[in-house]
Design a protein that fits this description.
Blueprint lengths: L6 H19 L10 H17 L7 H34 L4 H11 L3 H7 L18 H19 L9 H23 L4 H6 L5 H16 L1 H7 L4 H11 L7 H18 L5 H6 L2 H8 L1 H17 L8 H25 L6 H23 L11 H6 L6 E3 L7 E6 L1 H4 L2 H11 L2 E6 L3 H5 L3 H10 L10 E5 L2 H4 L6 H12 L5 E5 L32 E3 H7 L1 H13 L3 E4 L1 H5 L4 E3 L16 H5 L2 H10 L1
Parallel strand pairs: 2-3, 2-4, 4-5, 5-7
Antiparallel strand pairs: 1-3, 6-8
Helix pairs in contact: 1-2, 1-14, 1-15, 2-9, 2-12, 3-4, 3-6, 3-15, 3-16, 3-17, 4-5, 4-17, 5-6, 7-9, 9-10, 9-12, 10-12, 11-12, 15-16, 22-24
Length: 612
Amino acid sequence: MKSRYRPEIDGLRAFAVIVVIINHLNKEILPNGYLGVDIFFVISGFVITSSLYQRQSKNFKDFISGFYERRIKRLLPTLSFFVFITSIAICLFEANPYFSLWTGLTSLFGLSNLYLLDRSTDYFAQSTELNVFTHTWSLGVEEQFYILFPFLIWFSGFGTQTKKGARNLFLIVGSLAIASLISFLYLYPINQSAAYFLMPTRFWEMASGCLLFIGFQKIPSIENLLAKVPPLLVLALIITIMHLPISLATVSTVSVVALTLLMIGSLKKQTAAYKIFTNPKVIYIGLISYSLYLWHWGVLSISRWTIGVHWWTIPFQLALIFGLAVGSYRLIEIPLRKRSWFGKRWKTIVFGGGVILILSSSIIALVEPLKGKLFIGGQFNKWNMKIYKSTKIIHSITLPTIYLIGDSHAGQYGSVMTYLAEKRKFNFIMHPQGSKLKLLNKDREEYILASLRKYKNKFKKGDIIIFAAYIDKYFKEGQDWTKQYTTFIQQTQNIGIKFILISPTPSFQKVKDGYTCQKEWYRPSWAISKLCFAEVSKKEWFTSYNLPIRKIEKFLLANPQVNYLDAFSVLCPDTYCKNHDQNEFMFIDTHHLSSYGAMKLSKTFETIIQSN
């Protein structure tokens, strides 16, 4: 079959991947550089239709198996290698890489876009930069498109080269493209994530490339007309649109897709733009664009977990990105794509599925049971991994025992209580309940107190029960924890147990998501983002939580035997509460204390425990 290779298309791929990388390096330089992905979508539709045009196939089975064999050999090897290496890498620097690992795993099945949507991911949020596989959403969209598209090709008659095949395909794809575009324009203002991540709302972009190719083949005057447009002007317009405000995202997206179609049609040999886009170095970047796209985000994301992305680190990071991409392209992508794997197509497809399953099992092993085993962080993060873990320290059965219960906000005091248990020689048992509550879908208060009831026969005079919970989850959502806790107090009051309630602690809703705000040996203080620093007015905080605070006061009045540990006043002595002091961050995220922050309460804990 005659080659339809157009080197300028690879040049356009190079442009697309470069603007994406620039955007991900610094959004201020090219705010809408992410639209390079939309350029990729248009190119994919154009090239895939071109590759299937007049391709000889014996029957549908031969056609469909050949199509998926080529897709597997084109996409799977490089993606598998990237996911495997990057999964191990993120485990070294993130204590709990659950979100990243599951995104990587779903990307192997072409479903990461749906997983990110299910997790209510905002692509433009800061937290997405910390997920090393966020960018694989676009591969998911393309792979889902590839599930549908070959059936449209074949049953329209385009694949069997019938007389009306091209017309049928144009009408079918055109109709679907119009419906897709309408759904995109309708959905984007009301559900941006769905419009961004779903294949049906992205179908029109890839379909437009398909329609352009069919138009070129059946109506040559279209290509002749587009050839009269100066491609450098089109390029200038694309770059201009990439500087428009995010608020004009829908207009920008539609415009870039239209201009990309115009660019493909206008790039002719006699133009200066053609010479630029077909420069051997530019073409090479286009050829390795798939590997570049995969590796650039992984390197930048892990950089944000470690030393950060700064003007002086960018040359080294770009060199690493390019080196990994070139190595991946030369050693994996090209050899495996051009080589015959097994001779029979079905064996290639089955082998590809087997690779996905084996790699998926490896990733699941990194989630559990190898969770945290590869982590090379310091003491703080190793404690952070245990925030939801039970702790039991028994010096002697005759000594008093302190029970610490609640949600993850009980777990955040594990470090200070462990320290005091060793210092003051008392027994310590901690049963914090965090993420399990969502999984079990049980009554929160009943589940928390159930951990205490198993010790009911072991309670003795002098024991202390300490309760702590996150104010948002337990005091604002209508959870009546006070009734169950009061009942438990009444049931055990004859034993001689002491009770302590820990106050809510400050929360900082505007702080950057993720655990990248703590110093590590691989994350020095100068690498910590300014977005990590936050403060909140004490007056505004109390106004915001007025109702739950009144509920706490009512509970304390009804239960005078309960001592109140005012952690809030210790952590926030001034008019404004800060998530840091002059030495260190006191919070690991928007509302959980770090071990450093918890240790600031050691004297307060020691005093109230001693008085009890």
